[in-house]
Structures are given as structure tokens and as C-alpha cells.
Amino acid sequence: MAENKKHNLPRYLRDKYQLIATVTFVALFSVIFMLVSIPFSDNAWFELRPSRAFAFTAVFFTICLLILIISRRVMYALRRMRMTYAQYVLWIVGEAILICLLYTAFTLQGDEIGIIDIDDASFLELMGKAFVYAFTSIIVPNIIAAMYFAIVDKNKAINRPAPQSTVAEDKKIALYDNTGVLKFSISVSALYYIEADDNYIIAWYQGAGNELDKYMLRSSLKAVEGGFADKGLIRCHRKYIVNTGKIKLVRHNGQGYEVVLSHDAIPALPVSKTYEPQIKGFFS
Questions:
Q1: Cα–Cα distance list, 28 to 31, 49, 146, 265 (Å)
Q2: I need a surface site. Which of 24, 57, 91, 157 has the fewest CB within 10 A?
Q3: Per-residue pLDDT tens for 125-145?
């Protein structure tokens, strides 16, 4: 299990901001690469001067951008599923191959209607030339973007203060985001549980009129778990930390244990095999 986690893609590479930034960077990188390479290329048909070839070029780049946007939207939609580094690389290579096929199709069509002259180049020759461009203008900027975000994330982890969770005299729990900024403070007696949601955590608590309310902040359960160890909160699942003072009962549902809290609007929370011993140990 631990070995597999080492190969899992970091979640920050599939955050909405990172995906938008990566697509934007790839698009700008591709345009700059095209501007620089066209004068030195004997096989690129891209044209920037007003002409039929320019319209052909504009349509091609627009479709390429749509391919990247749709691809990354799908990646974001699947963010809750685990993705390994190998799968991420294959995904990007798949984008490059799809764009190579599009380039080849445009080239053959342009030759047929008289916009482009390919000197009887074969399909495989066109694909080979296209992949050189695709590798430089798609795969390389993706690598650069991934390295940049990795460095940013590492610097945040090194420089930010350790996230804190404290209980004062009035039994208030303070929640800090992953930059060390205090975001939320609540009485222990009002808190039901804390839930992980991608790169955020959600504190579910008793609001006005006993209504269930929530507060979301950018952090992780791992960051706050240690600070809650002696404050009546316990981890029961990779997604949940529960307030033991709000536990109504712990039961076995035939597949495993689950925790029922004292608010009817809260569904039973699962207890995973990993945290089952500490739940049993706490109540014994």
C-alpha cells in the first residue's frame, strides 16, 4: 500500500487552478514555438499572414485548444479517482498523439484542396514530423508546468507554519489553512465531524436552531489530525475525523463498522479497516 502511494500522482496536479494554468501555458508555449520555428522549418504549413492558409492554421489551433480543454476537464472530473505518474504521462502522450492525428488529417486535406503542398509525403512521414512538433509544444511545457507546481508545493510545505489546532479555556477549536492562517474557530461541543474533500476539509457543526452547518477551508485531515489527538476527536476513515462526544453509537452493518452521530441529518460514517482498531480501542 505504501509503495503504491509513492507512485500516485499528487492531487495538486489535478486541481482546477493547476489544470487551467497548464492548458494556458501549453497554448502560449505552442504559439511562441510556432512563431520561432516556422522560419526554420521546411515542412510546417502554418501561416500567420492573412490568407486561406492562415484560416486553416487558426481552425487547427482552435481545435487543438478545445482538445486540451476537454481533456483536462475530464481529468478534473475524475480527480477523485487515483492516478499514477505513469497514467498521467500516458494521458499527456495520448493528447499529443490525438493532435498529431489532427495535424496529419489537416495536412492531407489541405493538400487535397490546394492550400498545402506536401510533396507526396506518406501518412507515417507526416505523423513522424507532427510528433516532433507535438513533443516540443505539448509534452515539454507539460513537464515544465508539473516541475513548477511541484517546486511551489514543496516550498509551501517547507515555509508555511505547521497547521495548528488548539483548544483554549472555553474549549474552542481553531482551524488553520495550509498557509498557517487562522480560518475558523468553533466550540468542541458544537463540532460533529471533519470531512476531507480533495484539497479541502469541511467542518460540520451545529448551527443556529440546531441546524447542521459547515465551513470549508483549504487544508488536509493529515495536517490537523495530530493536533486533535487529545481533544476528543478521532480518525475513523481516510475522509473523516469525528467528535467522540457526538457519537451516538458504533455498529456493524454486515460489511464493517460505522459511526452514527447525534444529529439526524448526518448519515452513518464508515469506519475503515485501517482505523477500526483505534475506534475499538477508544471505546474499550
A1: 5, 19, 16, 48
A2: 157
A3: 778 878 877 888 888 888 888
